[in-house]
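Quiz preparation item.
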């Protein structure tokens, strides 16, 4: 481990029972012994680690800590014997090595491994739900040995042999990234219908961020306001980027944004082709597991950030000089990581919406904090008063066509979501009956 750390210049945290014998001064600079690590301590270590190093000479029968690491989205670099050829997919969930040269190369290339793929692989193959089918099969095999026919016993009620199935990520060096796939409007590959755990998508949360702000902005037919919103951000005296997601735009919103991109403003433009549940009752009835959920969209947008700080911004928001000064002052004060919550008061010119700066453990949108600026990934220790410094200045007066569109569950642009559609439709009808009248808009 010491030779690997020296060759790569990597800081290594060594966890386990025992102690380091007579560490030299140079060894202390690159290797930190943290002692015994229980489950909670391991969670913390994995959440901040670029990878788990397991150069054991022991023939591991399972090596459960490697599975824990992958569930946390942490790639594993292990020996190439024992159980690891079975559990570590070389080049996909980590690397398997047999020499110092190979371990050094693996550490230097650990960023090529996707944390999300590691997590998906581990959960699909080693979760309690998955392993329970294996135990069930073993118990039934043992039980059958005590029948008269023993090994020759035939179970005519058997429906499958899924206990032997394994999930292997469809990842090759030429595979398209999830981002490329999701932004295609033809031949779309959809996510699985379960809640996406972006809180642990460490590919964005753990990676090194640049000083500055990432604004995440969704726009749908905002050509009359998008220019004003983007231009107002240029008064900031700190680096920033705008991650703009165009949601089924049919006007010149993209044209307005592209003009500013060509003039040198840092704007990344993405497409999101799915109809979303409209604000209000329709949104409340939309399961967060659905691609039609604003929650799902915001979490997907949240992963785009390349800077330390992330703001959710509207395409009709205007940055004021007062807010820009407070933000710049807050960013300059990085005494320690802290969770700070601030509720913005209703001081908008033409509209009033409370925006909450969340103080959750991970920056992640939930049903109960939909309209908010996410907390800073790195927040100042001192309290920051931003209430009343934000202006929702929207010159848009006309009614938008899509406000009166039928709910997303009435449109059949995708197969495989019937269960979600029926769930949303049933809840919608129940609430509609409770409050009376139409609640589409």
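Solution:
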């Amino acid at each position: 481990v010491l030779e690997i750390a020296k060759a790569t210049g990597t800081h290594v945290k060594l966890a386990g029972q025992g102690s380091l014998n007579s560490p030299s001064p140079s060894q202390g600079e690159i290797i930190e012994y943290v002692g015994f690590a229980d489950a909670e301590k391991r969670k913390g270590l994995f959440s901040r680690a670029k990878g788990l190093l397991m150069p054991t000479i022991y023939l591991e029968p399972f090596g459960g800590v490697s599975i824990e690491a992958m569930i946390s989205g942490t790639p594993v670099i292990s020996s190439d014997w024992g159980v690891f050829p079975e559990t570590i997919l070389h080049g996909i969930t980590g690397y398997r090595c047999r020499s110092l040269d190979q371990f050094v190369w693996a550490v230097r290339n650990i960023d090529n491994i996707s944390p999300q793929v590691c997590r998906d692989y581990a959960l699909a193959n080693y979760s309690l739900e998955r392993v329970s089918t294996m135990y069930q099969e073993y118990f039934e095999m043992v039980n059958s040995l005590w029948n008269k026919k023993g090994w020759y016993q035939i179970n005519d009620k058997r429906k499958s042999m899924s206990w032997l199935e394994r999930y292997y990520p469809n990842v090759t060096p030429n595979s398209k990234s999830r981002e490329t796939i999701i932004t295609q409007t033809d031949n779309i590959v959809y996510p699985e219908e379960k809640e996406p755990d972006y809180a642990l998508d460490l590919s964005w949360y753990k990676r090194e961020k640049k000083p500055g702000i990432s604004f995440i902005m969704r726009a749908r037919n905002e050509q009359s306001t998008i220019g004003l919103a983007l231009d107002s951000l240029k008064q900031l005296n700190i680096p920033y980027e705008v991650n703009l997601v165009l949601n089924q735009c049919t006007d010149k919103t993209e044209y307005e944004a592209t003009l500013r991109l060509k003039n040198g403003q840092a704007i990344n433009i993405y497409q999101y082709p799915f109809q979303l549940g409209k604000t209000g009752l329709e949104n409340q009835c939309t399961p967060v597991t659905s691609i039609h959920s604003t929650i799902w969209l915001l979490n997907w947008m949240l992963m785009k950030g390349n800077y330390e700080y992330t703001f959710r911004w509207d395409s009709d928001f205007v940055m004021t000089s007062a807010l820009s000064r407070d933000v710049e002052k807050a960013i300059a004060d990085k005494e320690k990581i802290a969770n700070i919550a601030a509720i913005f008061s209703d001081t908008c010119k033409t509209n009033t919406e409370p925006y909450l700066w969340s103080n959750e453990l991970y920056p992640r949108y939930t049903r109960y904090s939909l309209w908010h600026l996410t907390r800073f990934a790195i927040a100042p220790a001192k309290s920051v008063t931003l209430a009343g410094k934000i202006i929702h200045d929207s010159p848009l007066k006309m009614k938008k066509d899509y406000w009166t569109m039928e709910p997303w569950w009435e449109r059949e642009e995708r197969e495989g979501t019937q269960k979600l559609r029926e769930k949303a439709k049933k809840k919608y009808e129940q609430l509609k009956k409770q409050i009376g009248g139409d609640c589409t808009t």
